[in-house]
Amino acid sequence: MALPSSGIISVSDILTEGGVGGSPTVTLQGLATGSYFTINTSSPSYPSPDPPYAMSDWYDYEQASAPAIYFWDLTTDIRWDNPTDKPLATTSEDWSISLWIRPQWASSDLNLTVYDLSPSGTTSTANRFFLSYDYGLNRFVARYRSNSKNFDRQWSLHGNNSATGTGTSSSSGKWTAANRGNANSNGFVNLIVSYDASQTSAANAFKMYWNASELTNTAVSNSNTRSTVSYDELTFCGNDNNTGGSRIADYMYMHMWDQVTSSSNATTMYNSGTPISASAAGYTTNLIFGDTSTATPAVNDPDDSGNYDFENANGQSVVYGT
What we know:
The protein is mainly beta. The chain is built from 6 helices and 16 strands.
């Protein structure tokens, strides 16, 4: 709860807002310079570390205030295409993705296609590589679908509650705007999916991380034959086949690599809850896609890696806020 915008503020009020217990002896300078707790510079108002110091400097200060950020505010899908280096160009090529997502959908039995790789210009669902959230089953499905055959691993959120924090019940633990689970201060979750093509079992080929914590409890897996597909279109918050996979959600800092993402790489990209670009993380080897947009791209604008072209915003936009 923020400090008041006017009136009397006590040192005790400031310490309580900063999460400091007891009655330590403090100075106004020490408070303003962060000697007793870290000053949240994302607060709408915060004291200057420079003199003169006054109690009124703390008006409207909020320790828990989330930072303003750029993110995609989505109600339908956005797409990139024309990659020079296509993902999963052969059945022996590894792959991984990292993205930040904030559920904005209500509690209703609709599914979300988190991301979708597909051949360009087709309405067929026979060849896709995607992650979906099945609301009815409260389950993630990571699937390599080729020639209508499924190679996939599925994880229930309630079966991996130690990582997701959404709850242990399949009915009351649904992932929604009202139940985001373990998330950062802005309500975003970092999801990473890694695919090891050398594995014959889907349960071993796919790994998934929620805020750098691996989901280890498999609900179902299918290990059918895999075939090479030309995956040249990349879609977020839906798919190119229909609009049924779209939900209301916010996205940011999406990246994709032609390699397995290790647990240490996942920790690096999670960055203790602060979204970071692959470049800033020093994780650019085999990077084939990146989006850290601070404005809505124009058609044919390159992604951060220079591998993809922006195809369609579908009326969606990048916004700045919390």
